[in-house]
C-alpha cells in the first residue's frame, strides 16, 4: 500500500472518516432513491440505519488506514457496499451503476498499490467462476440462485480483494448465505434462495477493514 497520505492522530482520522461517511452515505441514499425511481421501484427503506452504518464504516476505514489513498477509497467502497446491500434486500437487484463504481474505485486503488494486472485478472476470473457455478446451480435446482448482478459485482470485488481475499470471500459468504437460508426455511419457509450479493459485500468489507493481503 502506498505511504502517501496525511499524518493524523487515529482519533482525528476516525472523526474525519465518520464525517466523510456521513456525506458520502447521504449521497448514496439519494442515488439509491434515483436508481429505484428509474426502475419504477420504491426507494429502499431504513435510510437512517444505512446512514449510521456508513458513518461507522468511514470512521473504521480511516482509523485503520489513516488519511491515505487506500483509506479514502475504502470509505467510498464501504458506503457503496452498504447502499447495494440495502437495495438488494429491498428489490433483489444490484444497480449496474454501483457495480461499476466499485470496480472503478478499486481499479484506482490498485493503480496506487501497483497491482493492476493482478486486480483485473482476479476480478474477471472470479466473475467467470461465479457465472459457471451459477449455471450449474441453476441446472441442479431448476431455478436461478445467483443472478447476473452478482456476477458483475464480483468483477469489482475481485479487483479489491486479489486472489487470496476473493477465495476467502466466496467461502465465508457461501457459508453465511446457506446458514441464513436454512434458518429462514426452518422458521417461516423460503420461497426463493436468499440474495448472495449482501453476503459477498459485507464479507469483502470485513476482510478489507481487517487488512487482508495484498494490503
Question: What order do the helices and strands come in, and which of them pair?
Answer:
Layout: H1 10-38, H2 47-65, H3 69-91, H4 96-113, H5 116-141, H6 148-188, H7 197-209
Secondary structure class reads: mainly alpha
Average pLDDT across residues? Answer: 88
Question: Helix proportion of residues, in percent?
Answer: over 70%
Q: How would you sum up the global shape?
A: globular
Whole-Å distance between the termini? 6 Å
What is the number of domains? 2
* Strand segment tally: 0
SSE order in H/E notation?
A: HHHHHHH
Strand content: under 5%
Radius of gyration, whole Å? 17 Å
The low-confidence parts are none
The biggest sheet, with number of strands, parallel, antiparallel or mixed sense and barrel status, is: none
